[in-house]
Amino acid sequence: MNADQNKFLFLLSVILVTILITEPHESYARPLSSTYDWVKVDASSALDQTVAQNWITALDEAIDYLPEDVVKIIRGQSGLNITIITESNSCVNGYANGGGVAFNTKPADTGCPFNWIPLIQDGFSHNEMVYVALHELAHYYFFYSTEDGKTLKVFLETVAERGAIEPGGEKIVWRELPATIYPILTPGWQIHEDVAEAFSIYVMWPDILKKNHPIRYAFMKKVFGREYFLRVPMPDSIKSRLTYNPNKR
Hints:
Strand order of the largest sheet: 1-2-4-3
Helix content: 40-55%
Number of helices: 10
Number of strands: 4
Mean pLDDT: 85
GO molecular function, one term: metallopeptidase activity
Order of helices and strands: HHEHHEEEHHHHHH
Distance between the termini: 73 Å
InterPro entries: MetalloPept_cat_dom_sf (IPR024079)
Low-confidence stretches: 14-30
Number of domains: 2
Strand content: 5-15%
């Protein structure tokens, strides 16, 4: 190989290295998107765009599981706004309100006011992400649902004694224990979390809800209009938050 050939190969290698360094990685250059055109994604606050896309993939799977009438309420007239955030000083995995749904890619795993295993402890698994997505979609659904027999008010009347939320908001008298009891929450907020938990468990681990929380199972059967028979392994993080002992199943 002569000097001119060596010079050419050297220049070619420099060009290739420059391209590799300056060319944006495909996952960063391509906007994050859902398979559903009515889902609008904002991941500008997420530190890791690859992880953000994993959350959107989990959200899409969660929506895939839902019946058309439930999706119709979640979709509404203007679609669903999804925000992917990274807030390591927050214990919240996600939240939902009238403006849409948010997922936190890296919540705190210490110093949180609960005694169960944080989902983030070993990094979110796909099933944990789908569970969180279903949980937050449930909040959004019940925020808007006005269907007879399928509202938050009806859920409260179904799972708790009438007048269960005492004056001062200090106590709930349950007909059966919730799947998860959230510490430090007021009774009103406990009901919101309870219905979302029952919603997500009904889809992913229906046998557990049916055996241990039959009143909630019956309510969700009316909401979904169908039963699920998924065989998805339940992560230890989810088991650790349940009010029954999963080792006695």
